[in-house]
Every structure is written in C-alpha cells, then in structure tokens.
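agent: user wants the full assembly modeled, not chains individually. Plan: 1) parse entity lines 2) check alphabet per entity 3) run joint structure prediction 4) return tokens. Steps 1-2 passed, two entities, 794 residues total. Proceeding.
--- entities ---
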Amino acid sequence: MSTEETNLKKIQVQRYEPESDPDQHYLNEETGIWAWLTTVDHKKIGLMYLASVTFFFFVGGIMALLVRTELWTPAKTFIEANTYNQIFTLHGAIMVFLFLVPSVPAALGNFFLPLQLGAKDVAFPRLNLLSYYLYVAGALIAIVSIVNGGIDTGWTFYTPYSSTTGGAVTTMVFGVFVIGFSSILTGVNFITTIHKMRAPGLSWDKLSLFSWSLYATSIIQILATPVLAITLALVGLERLLGIGIFDPALGGDPVLFQHFFWFYSHPAVYIMIVPGFGIVSEVITTFSKKHIFGYWAIALSSLAIAFIGFLVWGHHMFVSGQASLASMVFSFLTFLVGIPTGIKMFNWTATLYKGSIKLASPLLYIFGFFFLFLVGGLTGIVLGSIALNVHLHDTYYVVAHFHFVMVGGMVMAFLAGVHYWWPKMTGRLYNETLAKIACGIIFVGFNVTFLPQFVMGSLGMPRRYFNYIEQFQVYHQISTIGSYILGIGFVMIFYYLVKSIYTGEKASPNPWGSRALEWQVNSLPPLHNFHHTPVIINGPYDYHKPMDEFQLGLAESGNGHGTEVDVSSTEEKPQAE
Amino acid sequence: MANHSTSSHSRYLQHHFVDAEQQFDAAKMGMWVFLVTEILFFGGLFAAYIVYRLWYPELFVMASEELNTLWGGVNTVVLIGSSLTVAMAIKSAQLNQKRNIAINLGITLALAAIFMVIKYFEWTHKFHLGIFPGEFYAYEGIDHPKANVFFSLYYLMTGLHGLHVIIGIGLMIWLLVRSVKGHFDSEYYTPVEITGLYWHLVDIIWIFLFPLFYLID
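--- prediction returned ---
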C-alpha cells in the first residue's frame, strides 16, 4: 500500500485468537424451538437449509432408486407405467428445485458468506428468513401436488402436454414459482451483502473465491429465475383460464415455452455448479497450503460462465424446429462455455502442483469432482455439436452427461464443502477413515451407474422410457447395481456425520490450518460471528505469510465502515476475548 | 448522494450494520437489485408480446382500437403525477419537513387509487362486451382468429402491472401510517426512499405498456 496517505484513516488493529469450545456460541445464545423458527442468524438459517436439502436429497434419491429398480427388466418390474412417469418427474423436480439449486448457496453459502466477508450477518437477515420459509412453503405445495394427483410431465413441464394433462400440474408449478422467489431473494441478499458488508480492508482482490462464485451465482439467480417464474405462472394461468400463450389449440406457441424455460433452466445449471467451483478453490488451497494459482482467472471465469450461460439456451432445442442459423449460433456459443471452465480446471491443477498436499477427505472428494466433472464437461461439448446432438437428443447419453455434471460435479463439491466446513458448523470432527471409504464407494458406485448410460445412450436408448428392447438390459442392470452402491455411500456419509455430532472429537477452531477468514473465528462461532470487527490485511490464500497475521480485529466502537486500512498501524497484542 | 446523517446511533440501526450510512446504502442497493429481477419478470411477457406482434402485426392494429386511448392517457398522467409526488415525499424527508412527507404520500396514494378505479372500469367494460382472455373470448367485433391471444397478453400485462400497483398501494398506506406517527425525518427515511424506487419502476412499466397496447397505428 502507498504511504502517501490522504484519505487513509489510521485505525488501531489488534490480534485476536479464536477459542475452541467457547461457552457462548450461536447454538446456545438463543435456545428453544421458537428461537430457531424465528432466528435471523444466517448460520442457523444455513443449518435449517442444510437439514432441508439433505432431507429432499434422500427423498429424491429414493425416487431414483425406484426408477432404477423398475428398469431392471425390459417390461414392467414392479410399478405401473403411469406411476413410473410420476416418479421420474418427482426425482427430477425434487433434485433440481429442492436440492441442487439451494444446496450450496442457501445452505453453505448462508453459513459462510458473512463469515468470509467479516460481517455479522447478511445484509437483510429477515429477508433471509423469508427466503427459507418461501422454500419450505414451495416444497410443501409441491408435496401436496404429489399427493393430490401427481405430475407426469417431467421436470421440464413442456407445453402443450403440461397445460392439458391431468394431475396436479397447476399446484406444482405454483410451488416451483414460490421456490423461485426464495431463490431470487437469496440472490438479492447475497449481491447486496458482498457489495456492502465487507469488513474494513476486504477489497475485491481479497475476496475469497467461494464468495466470488456466490456472487456470479447470485447474478444468474436474479436474472434468470424471474423468467422461470413468469413462464410457470403462464402455464398455471393457461390451465386455469385458458389464456393460450403456449397452447397451439388456443393460438399459442409451444416452442416459445421452450425458449422461456431454457432461458432460465440453462443458466440454472450454472446456479447449481458455480458455487461448487467456489468450494473447489477453497478446499484445494487449504489442503495444498499454497496460494491459489490464477486468482483473477478463477474469479472472473465464474462471471464469464454466468454471462455466456445466458446465451446458450437454444442448445436444448436443436430438434424443436428453431431456425438452423439459430442452432448454429447456439452451438458455437455452447463451445465457448468450455473456455472459462477449462481455465478453472487448469488453474486448480496448477495450484496443486508442488503444493504441500494433505490428502484429507474434503480433498479426496474434490479429486472425485475433477475426474467426474471433466467427463461431464467434455461430453457436454459432444452434445453441443449439432449433428451429434440430433443423434443423441433425449437419449441416456444426455442423462449420463448431466448426471456427471450434477452428481459427479456438484454433489461431489457439495460433499467436499460439507466435510471441509463440518468442524466449523458443528465444532466436531468426523471419522476420517469412514469418510475416505465413503468417498471411494461413491466414486465407484457413480461410475458403475452412469458409464453404461453413455453406452446405451449412444446405441439409441431413449430417456424416460418405461419399456426398452432386450439388448439394453445388461446396461440397465449394471446401472441399477451401481445406483445401489451409490445409495450405500450416501447413507454411510449421513451416518458418520450425524454420529460425529454426538460422539465426535472436539475440533479446534482451525483444524486444517486454513488462512481463510471463516476459520479465524471461534468454533462454534459466536452468534454475531465476530466480537470485534475484523480487519483484513492479507488475502484468504496467503499461505506464504505467518498465521498470526490472519485474524486482526478492532474494537466495536470507533471502527470505520468503508475506511481504508493502514497496515503500518498494525499493533500486535495477543489478547483473549 | 443523500444528505443524511451518518450518526452511528440512529434509532433504527440494525445490529449487523456498522453505521446508518451502511444500512441505507445496503437497503437502496437491495431494492435496485430487486428491481432488476422485476424487469426480467415483466421481460418474459414483453418478449411474448414482441413475438406475437411480429407474427400478427395486423391483429395488433385492429385489436388496439378496442382500447380506450383517452382513459389510458388519463391513467398515464395520473401515474406520472404520482411518481412526482413520491419523489417530493423523499425530498421532504431530506429537508426534514415531516408534515409534507405525509401529505405527499397521501396524494400518491390517492393517485394510485384513481389509476386502479379507471383500470377497473376499463376491464369491466370489456368483460361486458365479451372480451375475455384466451378460450373464454366471446367478442365478435374483431375479425381475426387470434384476437383472443392479443387480449390474453393485454390482461396478463396490465393485470400484472395492476397487481404491482395494488402492492404499491399497500406499501403507501404503511408509509403513510408511519409518517403520521413521525417515524421519518432527515435522519431516517430509508423505507420512503426504497418504496419510491419501486413506485418509479411501476410507473416506467406503465409508460411502456401504454404505447404498446393503446397507441398502435
């Protein structure tokens, strides 16, 4: 920093050391069920989201196992075709809207974004709680529609089928509409928080890459989700009032629905995966004890993905009858997404190079992420080429592709994040051996499930079909066996994580020796995160600097929001809180 | 920039903000970001409008003659006027003229109500003629097979806009009550400011809707 200071305000900076196992923390400062339900604390809201998304992950997972079990034989195995249609619809809708979209941003993001910014809370804590309740309300409406008639449209709700079929599509789209608002409000909250709530000294170039990824995600959430909301509102109104925007029988245009739907739903896949990228950056630096390679390249490539992601929706519609010129442009733009994603992959690999690598379970999950996401990404390039897409459209190849990205990429990153931050969230360490075994089981189970789907997809097995010809049976059976292995892995994770809450070893405030700000607070964190306003002098990945420069704080009064930090005034007085 | 005090002990300062300025900035930015989402929300309908107008330009010319340009125009003036008064309410707050805040909010509220009353008569008149959206469309006066689609769009877009006006009326009532109680002054007027931003957006959307539906020729 320059010494010719005209607008630099000198502030006293002291060093604070985090405590492990403090008497007062966010879980015991307010107690009782009512305090949980009305809490505006971002950490508790994050935990409530985490519990909810975990619940829906298991519900969606059971649906997946039912689908896979039914596909054991070419004809009916144990459920009716119509029930099968409803089950795969629910699997998709629950996993997308109730698990993937809110999982990292709303659960882990809520918990760690303010901590990484050195803030006491998000900008709008009450709005944050409202987001959570909208999510719950939307989920309840969705469950009611399942009980009350069921939905067999697939998670994409394509018109005119969705506007004419029976069942509870109207209430289902209303439920998704409400969940969409939850997502929008979270996005608004996070963008404002990142802009306005950063601690003194936390400039944009010291922002953690997880925060950068949440920032990119929030931009997509606020720009794409409203379009989904209005589209689903139109589907609902079409069923109720017959307004006929999409239904050709009433003069409407079904392809317009597809355009609107994918204008949201393609960027939505980046809502799901980009926060995962943020977790990768955090975990990789922590466990290789190295500064991130290409900080700006990674930060800005998230924004680039967000931007390009808005221009590629037509690649879902190559066979919908859109203009061939449009298809060519969309295909070309789709290839462009590979560039920022590739930049990230190379920078992560370069970060590991010559790092002091500790192969703990979070990093193991990240390695799983690398392999699986790479396959998912490269097959995405395959699907983006028009000629191949026409052949592979709506086959199991597509199913395998997006499961490699969503489960192999996003779920692996989510699990890495949960394992990485578990000691901070719960104050406990889990069983590391079991964690490594579970990671191996999931990696194997995942590949057994989805690799055969690439093969049968390229041989022509269409997705969503109840019956299939016998030559595909062996692939379906391998895939089904894989899905059981995968299920065992997830149950195992659930088991040892829950067990650790009760019997796990107490975690120190910074068990991984990370430089990031969230590790410099007590474990468990206090209700308002910081007893003092932290002053940020070093970046979150400055592993070449000594640890004792990392948690600097100043007293509650007389601090300056928006003041520049003058490093020269650093005065190091270790002091217990 | 607003000329408000940055005293860190404002009555309404929430615990997680360092000072009132940070709180004000955050609230304002949050509202701006929310307005972006509103534009995208309406954007879907505007996109549908563009598509159908490109396909059936003659339909839009014929059908728009059914709309009453006079009352549409009156409503435009009414809404622009309400945008002025809400801006004056904010200015009064900045100047610490507490009584004028309430007066200006009251006028805004009245204008918003007038807008909705006119809208009500426009809609009921059309219902009377049998002009309903979509499949319930029963009017014989327009000789075009897709006339129902035009009115679907008309009811959707003006209806969604009307819903926003009603929400705005609710917010104005809340602000009016608080301003009569004397909650707002030059130190603290964040709710007036951000509701004002919202109200301007509602106004601007109408400024697009009016020519797009009423003034096609």
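agent: reporting back. The first strand of chain A starts at residue 14 and ends at 15. Chain A touches chain B through 47 residues (CB under 8 Å).
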